[in-house]
Write a structure and sequence with these properties.
Chain B: It is found in: Cytoplasm, Cytosol. The complex is a heterodimer of chains A (338) and B (439). Chain A is of the alpha/beta class. Chain A has twelve helices and twelve strands. Chain A has a seven-stranded mixed β-sheet, with helices on both faces. In chain A, helix 8 links the parallel strand 2 and strand 3. In chain B, strands 3-2-1-4-7-10-11 form a seven-stranded mixed β-sheet. Chain B is globular. Classes of the chains: A alpha/beta (338), B alpha/beta (439).
Chain lengths: 338, 439
């Protein structure tokens, strides 16, 4: 499932949105003749279940949940519209007038297509576009906080590849001077790639194998982590090894800052390392492993919320105790089944 | 024996660099190295020693090996590369020693300068240290003592001194100083050095002739190995077998001579254990242990250090070996042990250390960076924009260690100082038998 490791999760989310658009505009889209908002929502839910690449794929359902939430908000009759564009405002306003007028009528056959197209055009597609926009711009929003958390000549620790962290550091570099230590995991070359990418921008980078984490930790001032999924209790699912780093950080009282776009918010709960996890093939860890000497490798590490100091998302900064608020703004409780 | 002028006295205006004597260039072809190892013993002194002396004296200390060959023309290029590398290593670890990648070729050129400096047994040993063929504290110590015995047998007194003991004491000091250029001397080797010094003191008071002294000294070294390493290992295995019940799940990190013996012994008694071996791919010790267990027919699981969090809930005990135990109760061991200890204390898993008593040290250390050894990673390209860092050792604090299994018993980490105090009465070893002259 996680074959594309160096690509950010953003790509799979974006591609799934574009796929949604394509599905909707396809001629044999399995929609009833005059689809309402609810029909669209069930359609999107079914599509997400179909496109999901396994039980541990969080990013496609997250993005679809967000789309559904935006659709709900845009089509709500209270008229509170969340999007920024004025044009869309007027369009949505026009739609509510149209809907209130069309409710009194039964389904209009000639106008059914135009009605569905109208809904599609004025609600669904703008919703998808808004979500896409949010995702594109998430890095910029996160980077606004770049300078506020660092002092001069700090030493930062990062682990494996994360494009969010990369952009964050590059924007922080403009105002602060710091030193970076990159921990690399034993199996993949992502750590080296990250160090090279950082080094290209004239940052002071040191690359260390994972085993040196304890020795290095006393020198580190802050830890920046990219994340795979943020769970509803504030816990995180991340690259294997981050749990060990967070435990060490707590021992040394080093603050851990988590950077992520809001598309990684996953309204699920986990309690230990095995709730959302998968064993990888033993040959990946050690090509010489046999049945007698089996290699064990895992996909995710679960980090409980007590180890994190701050979450920086494109919707704002949160502590583990308050990140549930973001979930209630971002998603709807009805959509948690996909 | 007179010392060479460039060994100790720094030149005026230059900061003292202890490695000024050796040729600093590294040859990467290790196959060539092994071939020449066989030839290296037999080659006699090559043409002009004087010619080779001067360019080597002018060289400054390299910080990292370069990709170039030994020939004398390229020494200047090596110097400029060296200065570049020195600039890079000006970070927080600039105080740590970095050891060169020597080959037998480069060492031969040193031999040409001073052929009597380092015996060929030690040179082979140092190359083995470099290659990674000889790692692990017990292994290194035993190999060192074997090389020392060989040296003793080949050693011939010069006519200046009649006393074997005093002359050999000087030799011993020299050997140690030179060995420090290759890899730091670990605690076990220091203890054996103290022991041999004690023997030589005793020898000085008796009037044995050269051959008998040599034989006696070799016997003493054998006894040291037997009592402090082999017999100690058996006692430790016996103590540990009482601790660990059948069917427990244990986690082992990297490779330790004691733990390996313990596991093999345990299975020979017919009991079962579930074993997780945590591997350190940089040194390859975990896979060595796994291969060894495989030969004995013992099944185990392999896991990487970053994936350890997954199985910690299933593990009952964690066993590690030691490079040395320090006076303040801290454990010096393979890098990564401290991380494991921290995780163990969070999950409340007992953390056991297996350590013989000859590895106890009087030093104290609090953190891993004030003293350490930098291990050479595989070389990236020369113009990479980041610096690589890789340490060899790790300090685990005493509050993470639950128990130390030694041959004197099961002791907590805080009692290391008391044990050292006991041993000091006997100068770190058992009473040494005074030799009698055979008639």
């Amino acid at each position: 499932m996680n074959t594309q490791k160096a690509q950010p999760r953003l790509y799979s989310s974006k591609e799934s949105l574009l796929a949604l658009k394509a599905h909707l505009s396809a001629k044999n889209a399995k929609l009833p003749k005059s689809p309402t908002i609810e029909d669209y929502i069930t359609y999107i839910k079914k599509l997400s279940i179909r496109l999901k690449q396994g039980p541990l794929d969080f990013w496609i359902p997250n993005v679809y949940r967000r789309v559904i939430q935006v659709i709900r908000l845009m089509s709500s009759e209270d008229g509170f519209v969340q999007n920024k564009d004025k044009e869309k405002n007027f369009k949505a306003l026009g739609l509510t007038i149209q809907r209130s007028s069309s409710r009194s009528k039964t389904t209009i056959e000639t106008g059914a297509e135009t009605g569905s197209n109208a809904i599609q055009q004025y609600v669904i597609l703008p919703a998808i576009d808004q979500v896409l926009e949010e995702m594109e711009a998430h890095s910029d929003d996160i980077n606004t906080f770049a300078s506020t958390h660092f002092f001069t000549n700090e030493v930062l620790l990062v682990y494996e590849y994360s494009t969010t962290v990369l952009n964050f550091l590059l924007s922080a570099k403009k105002t602060r001077n710091f030193e970076i230590i990159v921990l690399e995991s034993e199996t993949e070359n992502l750590g080296k790639q990250f160090a090279t990418d950082l080094g290209k921008h004239q940052l002071n980078v040191t690359l260390t194998p994972f085993t040196n984490a304890y020795a290095i930790m006393q020198r580190v001032n802050k830890i920046l982590l990219g994340v795979d999924a943020i769970l509803k209790n504030g816990g995180l699912l991340m690259h294997p090894g981050t749990y060990a780093i967070c435990v060490l950080a707590k021992q040394f009282a080093v603050p851990v800052i988590v950077l992520s776009g809001a598309h990684k918010l996953t309204p699920k709960y986990a309690f230990d390392q095995t709730t959302f996890n998968e064993l990888v093939s033993p040959l990946k860890i050690n090509p010489n492993s046999t049945i007698e000497q089996m290699s064990i490798g895992i996909t995710f590490d679960y980090v409980p919320p007590e180890y994190i100091s701050l979450y920086i998302t494109n919707q704002g900064q949160y502590t583990p105790q308050s990140i549930y608020q973001l979930f209630s703004d971002f998603y709807n409780v009805k959509d948690e089944d996909i | 024996m007179s010392e060479k002028p460039n060994q100790q006295n720094p030149k005026k205006g230059e900061p003292w660099k202890p490695k000024e004597k050796f040729d600093k260039k590294a040859n990467k072809e290790k196959q060539k190295q092994e071939q020449e190892q066989g030839e290296g013993k037999q080659e006699t002194n090559q043409p002009p020693q004087q010619q080779n002396k001067q360019p080597i004296q002018q060289q400054t200390a390299d910080q990292q090996p370069t990709q170039q060959q030994v020939p004398t023309n390229d020494k200047q290029i090596a110097q400029t590369n060296a200065s570049k590398e020195q600039d890079k290593r000006k970070d927080f670890l600039s105080h740590l020693p970095i050891f060169q990648d020597y080959t037998s070729v480069s060492i031969k050129t040193v031999k040409q300068i001073d052929p009597l400096t380092l015996h060929h047994a030690f040179i082979e040993l140092c190359i083995q240290y470099q290659n990674g063929q000889c790692i692990g504290s017990t292994h290194r110590c035993v190999e060192f003592l074997n090389a020392l015995k060989q040296f003793i047998r080949d050693y011939k007194l010069s006519r200046q001194s009649n006393y074997f003991a005093m002359a050999f004491l000087d030799e011993l000091k020299k050997i140690f100083n030179l060995m420090k250029n290759f890899r730091t001397v670990n605690e076990g080797m220091s203890t054996s050095y103290l022991f041999i010094r004690e023997c030589l003191m005793i020898l000085r008071d008796t009037k044995l002739d050269e051959n008998e002294s040599k034989i006696w000294l070799c016997n003493q070294i054998d006894q040291f190995i037997q009592s402090k390493i082999i017999a100690a290992s058996e006692l430790i295995v016996k103590n540990a077998t009482q601790l660990i019940q059948e069917g427990t799940t244990i986690l082992v990190y990297a490779r330790s001579y004691l733990i390996e013996n313990f596991i093999i012994n345990y299975f020979k008694q017919g009991k079962q254990l579930t074993i997780f071996v945590v591997d350190n791919p940089q040194f390859g010790e975990g896979s060595q242990l796994v291969n060894r267990l495989q030969q004995q027919g013992i099944p185990c699981y392999q896991i990487l250090l970053s994936h350890v969090s997954y199985i910690l809930s299933k593990v009952d005990k964690i066993l590690v070996g030691a490079s040395s135990m320090l006076c303040n109760g801290a454990l010096v061991s393979r890098v990564g042990t401290a991380l494991l200890a921290c995780l163990a204390s969070t999950h409340k898993i007992p953390f056991l250390v297996f350590c013989e008593s000859y590895k106890f040290s009087e030093k104290s250390q609090i953190d891993s960076l004030s003293w350490n050894e930098i291990a050479q990673l595989e070389q990236g390209n020369e113009n990479q924009q980041y610096t690589s860092l890789s340490l060899r050792y790790d300090i685990t604090q005493s509050n993470y260690i639950n128990m130390i299994v030694t041959e004197v018993g099961l002791i907590p980490a805080t009692s290391v100082k008391a044990v050292i105090g006991e041993f000091k009465k006997y100068n770190y070893v058992d009473a040494i038998e005074v030799p009698r002259k055979e008639q």
